[in-house]
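Protein in question passed on here:
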Amino acid sequence: MHIEKSSILEFLAVWPLPTLAVGVLLWAVMQRPWQVLQREPIQHAWLGSLVLLTLLWSARATVGHDVVIQLTGATLAVTMFGLPLALISLALANVVSLLGLAYLSGQAWPDIGWVALAPRFIWMAAVPALVTAALQAVLRRRLPRHLFVFILGHGYFAALLASMVAGGLRVAWLVQTSAPGGAGLSVADRLTGVVIMAFGDAFLTGMLVAIFVVFRPHWVLTFNGREYLA
């Protein structure tokens, strides 16, 4: 049976990402991460982080020839609340920011691009969050427990590498699922945007992690003061 290449490309572009997004969210929900929100200080920090994440996901800039720069805050969410709650928080920010952008652009309810939810969640939330969690686990095992190791490793470098990995995989996915000869950005332009976004995410995450572990360490669930300040 002959299957047209365009049909394969359409399938690859539409179905795997929503399926993967639903699977990741189901796993996060099964961990029942909301139990940590029983503590009042964490509730305030989580609600504040939702506002910050929604603003980050709603703000975007275009540099050069349509290179889109958009910060994600995925590493910051994982560092503050752990992987499961971070995924749920990023999913909420994804939906709210999409609705906000639709409202600001004057889109009617039927015209909202709901299909963008899954790709945005995978490339801006799930992949960088998973990379962050894996990298932070390695850092906890391999490096000494020191305050500056936590700030630079868990905050700055984890955000930098997670953003680069997620952005690089997204570029590879777009190249693989795009029709040959189609109009669009070059790979070099896309990777330029990835690098710029990665350093922006790293700077923002490293700065906020440094502030929080010094002034509000109880907001950062992955930080144990008895270990890193001993």
